[in-house]
Amino acid sequence: MAARRMSSLLSSSYAPALLRSLDRVSGRGISRFTTAAALEEPIIPPVKVEYTKLLINGQFVDAASGKTFPTLDPRTGQLIANVAEGDIEDVNRAVSAARKAFDEGPWPRMTAYERSRILLRFADLVEQHADEITALEVWDNGKPYEQAAGDEIPLFIRLFRYYAGWADKIHGLTIQADGPYHVQTLHEPIGVAGQIIPWNFPLLMYAWKVGPALACGNTIVLKTAEQTPLSALYVSKLFHEAGLPPGVLNIVSGYGPSAGAALASHMDVDKLAFTGSTETGKIVLGLAAKSNLKPVTLELGGKSPFIVCEDANVDEAVDLAHNALFYNQGQCCCAGSRTYVHEHVYDEFLEKAKARAFQRVVGDPFKKGVEQGPQVDSDQFEKILKYIRSGVDNGATLETGGERFGSKGYYIQPTVFSNVQDDMLIAKDEIFGPVQSILKFKGIKEVIRRSNDTQFGLAAGVFTQNLDTANTLSRALKAGTVWINCFDVFDAAIPFGGYKMSGHGREKGVYSLSNYLQVKAVVTHLKNPAWL
């Protein structure tokens, strides 16, 4: 698969059907963020919520407590549905089902080719139901429909087809030893994998974790984010239609301090994978260590530098930097949230970046042409506005935006700050919102030092026409991914993960398989071998 830019829109063959059905309402008009009027009445999503219970041992069941929690429409703050609220008892039930499926069930015992075929059938079913899945993701999360349909659902499908291809290519080695021994290594499934995913890319994070775990022959208990539980339940039902045995994939919806903590500290979970904030990652790692010392993969926060060098084409750099920050309402762990611009092109870049942000189309994510929807919930909304106020109070120049958009829902104006200093909170903390901080630098050594002066190390972007500059920066920047003259390229085969406090391990690509495998050495004594 050619590298997929996350900013490419409507590249799929199946998205246009629903988009055509939305054309009837697209004529209502689209507001840029400077419009003072309140947003219009939200479009009614063309999908029905069917699955709101926990998925345990192949069946949708109520929580043991009978409790539910609301999942809300970020466009309005109103109820979409009440979802079963999993707790410790439900996690125990799900882990028991996963353990039995691993120890006694057919999944790890069927041929890898058979597992591959189930993954491929699942990908085909997702493709057939892409319109409904996209609509659920947009409704629950607030991301633009065109983004979800053109970028995320196709990549979700590609990821599962990619891991289906790996299922029958996992093998160990034959090793030459000093002596009369036959030595081989076995790559064995690790067992029951606990997985906790975030709300910003619910389906993609599902694919990043479920795909490699299943390809390796493991069973899973996955906890969804409480803000966005709906799409994972829908696609997991399709997995069982594809032939996945009961108990192999279990979905628990619930809150972090209850369901998440129970999963992280469970003594019968063999492996844990978590994507979320660095602060929560520390808690998860501690719970895993205090229980059965289970290995943990962490994909955590970031404060990625986007470096615009002196020789850059400013127009192209402005557009790339804009997408690097504002994509998905700025709710990306790897967002290019520190835009470092060389002093010789700083003024030109700033004026054009401000103009581009001013032109950004904000509105109902179901409406055609909208680039930015609402933030995911009220907590995130208030957090972002607090950081904007901090930037103003600390002396940064608010060039555009900075306020709520409309009168309801969690919309925020695309915001640009100039004259940002490295010690300001907006330059140090992960804001996770549509706030671009533009900083000035003089030379390469300086920008390397400043870019690396952070607790994070998830990603970085470099925009230059000079190959030597690109090579120097790509090797000097302490980050798990460095994009040169591009950003947010998330191909299924490209590994992703962080340095420092941005996490442990890698997701996607061949590197992710090692997260879900144990390596066993088998040594057999040879009697009178013909050769060694």
What's the arrangement of secondary structure elements?
Blueprint: H1 16-26, E1 54-56, E2 59-61, E3 68-73, E4 78-84, H2 88-103, H3 112-128, H4 130-141, H5 145-166, E5 174-175, E6 181-189, E7 192-196, H6 202-215, E8 219-224, H7 230-241, E9 249-253, H8 256-264, E10 271-275, H9 278-290, E11 296-299, E12 305-308, H10 314-326, E13 338-342, H11 346-359, H12 378-393, E14 397-400, E15 415-418, H13 425-428, E16 435-441, H14 444-452, E17 459-463, H15 467-476, E18 481-484, E19 503-504, E20 517-525
Parallel strand pairs: 7-8, 7-10, 8-9, 10-11, 12-13, 12-17, 13-16, 15-16, 17-18
Antiparallel strand pairs: 1-2, 3-4, 5-6, 6-20, 11-19, 14-15
Helix pairs in contact: 2-8, 3-5, 3-7, 4-5, 4-7, 5-6, 10-11
Please tell me about this protein's structure.
The structure is a single chain. The protein is α/β, with parallel strands linked by helices. It is 36% helix and 19% strand. It is built from 15 helices and 20 strands. The chain has helices at 16-26, 88-103, 112-128, 130-141, 145-166, 202-215, 230-241, 256-264, 278-290, 314-326, 346-359, 378-393, 425-428, 444-452, 467-476, and strands spanning 54-56, 59-61, 68-73, 78-84, 174-175, 181-189, 192-196, 219-224, 249-253, 271-275, 296-299, 305-308, 338-342, 397-400, 415-418, 435-441, 459-463, 481-484, 503-504, 517-525. The strands form five sheets. A seven-stranded mixed beta sheet has the order 14-15-16-13-12-17-18, with helices on both faces. Strands 9-8-7-10-11-19 form a six-stranded mixed beta sheet, sandwiched between helices. Helix 2 packs parallel to helix 8 (256-264) and helix 5 (145-166) runs parallel beside helix 6.
